[in-house]
């Protein structure tokens, strides 16, 4: 299996403004060695290391981790998308690790919901497409989701990945979220991660049955070939008892699919979109 979304940070980079109720377990360093026991028990062969801050120093640190840890199959880093003139140099610095596959900007930290529509940002996104890099985004509200989909439509040659199921309204009708997911799926260059995001920082506790209707909608709209399982570790530790428990829950959400479809969601989709090499038989699924 391939984990399409996890993070590491050390004491120098763990500068996150966590809500008070999750501050204690998350305000510490998380290194590859901390993940290793759970990763082996879960059967995760490879992973996509994701930026967690809009910060160049963190991404340079992550590029070093990617170079030194074989199980990290891809890096999604951060560069300043408002600086198209400096973009190539910044990308080249991260690409030295040999695993740079995409860029993410946490658009929820931008007060302007139209941030992605700025001319400088649009120019940088076009350059990402030229370099065959993925644009990875997590829309945190309807306006930002629309901006993400506009960016995908504007750049049909760009691979766009939506994080954390596009933040479904767990416990409520599919509503506007369901319509946007269907619109997103109509764009062939968009894929989506089967994972949970900011909700785990707001008191939500993992509930596989509660997620099921939203996971089913994702799979119905996108198909298994554009859905990828992801843990969001270590953030998800605020909601789930262990790393392997997350993978058991993700596997349960796709249990009704065919074996080939399960293999796609649990690894093959991520391997293709993030160009993960030398992952071995990474798409084996739980027995």
- How many domains make up the coordinates? 1
Please report the number of helical segments.
10
CATH architecture: Alpha-Beta Barrel
Spatially, the strands of the biggest sheet line up as 1-2-3-4-5-6-7-8
Top-tier CATH class: Alpha Beta
Largest sheet: 8 strands, parallel
Question: Beta-strand percentage?
Answer: 5-15%
What's the gyration radius in Å? Answer: 17 Å
Question: What proportion of the residues is helical, as a percent range?
Answer: 40-55%
The count of β-strands is: 8
- The pLDDT mean sits at 91
Descriptors for this entry?
10 helices, globular, 8-stranded parallel β-sheet, 287 residues, alpha/beta, TIM Barrel, 8 strands
Give your account of this protein's structure.
It is a single chain. 41% of the residues lie in helices and 13% in strands. The model has no long low-confidence stretch (mean pLDDT 91). It has one domain (2-273): TIM Barrel (Alpha-Beta Barrel). Helix 6 links the parallel strand 5 (134-137) and strand 6. It has 287 residues and is α/β, with parallel strands linked by helices.
Write the layout of secondary structure elements.
Blueprint: E1 2-6, H1 20-26, H2 32-42, E2 46-50, H3 56-68, E3 72-77, H4 87-95, E4 100-104, H5 119-130, E5 134-137, H6 142-154, E6 160-162, H7 175-185, E7 190-194, H8 208-222, E8 227-229, H9 243-253, H10 259-273
Parallel strand pairs: 1-2, 2-3, 3-4, 4-5, 5-6, 6-7, 7-8
Helix pairs in contact: 2-9, 3-4, 6-7, 7-8, 8-9
